[in-house]
Design goal:
Length: 182
């Protein structure tokens, strides 16, 4: 199971002007390499650093995953739960079953030269994840519950994945000084 401190991802920070909003937000891109077919990668530490690196004291942290065979979820970092998840997805959407998406004799849309059977991965992502998460930020800190963590949930690994993380400040809220946030 991945952890936020993994060296598997590299962040690319970019300051953005939020179209007339007086405060500055921060946008980062996480690029990571998953290692297995079903995997949870903890993004919480990266999200926390992004919120802390922005000038924002109050607002939301938005995470977006532009993929269709993985997605985002908030849940607990606990190995037993992650093992249960792997067993659950195999029972509900088994990998070794016929999926029309994988039938290249009838499928004609969105094909690539490196097409692989992953109909089960698409269905798993649709059922169990979301493409985006919004986490409130108060006093510069993520408002997550005691056991809550933000995860990328992979169903078609091993693959390179991207997640966009944006700190979106409330337009009328106080901010930190720009020098302190950098």
């Amino acid at each position: 199971m991945g952890k936020g401190g993994d060296e598997r991802y590299a962040g690319d920070a970019q300051r953005v002007d939020w179209s007339g909003v007086l405060t500055l937000g921060l946008q980062r891109t996480i690029t990571l390499q998953t290692r297995s077919q079903v995997e949870l990668v903890d993004l919480t530490d990266f999200a926390t650093v992004t919120a802390a690196s922005s000038t924002m004291l109050y607002g939301v942290l938005h995470l977006f995953c532009p993929h269709t065979t993985c997605g985002l979820v908030i849940n607990e970092l606990e190995d037993g739960l992650h093992q249960d998840l792997t067993a659950f997805v195999e029972r509900v959407v088994p990998a070794e079953q016929y999926y029309a998406h994988d039938d290249l004799a009838r499928r004609w849309q969105n094909l690539t030269d490196a097409e692989r059977p992953n109909g089960h991965s698409h269905l798993r992502a649709m059922l169990l994840t979301q493409p985006s998460l919004m986490i409130p930020v108060a006093s510069g800190t993520l408002c997550l519950g005691r056991w809550q963590r933000a995860f990328l949930l992979e169903f078609d690994g091993a693959r390179e994945r991207t997640v966009y993380v944006s700190a979106i400040p409330l337009s009328d809220a106080p901010t930190r000084s720009k020098e302190r946030a950098l």
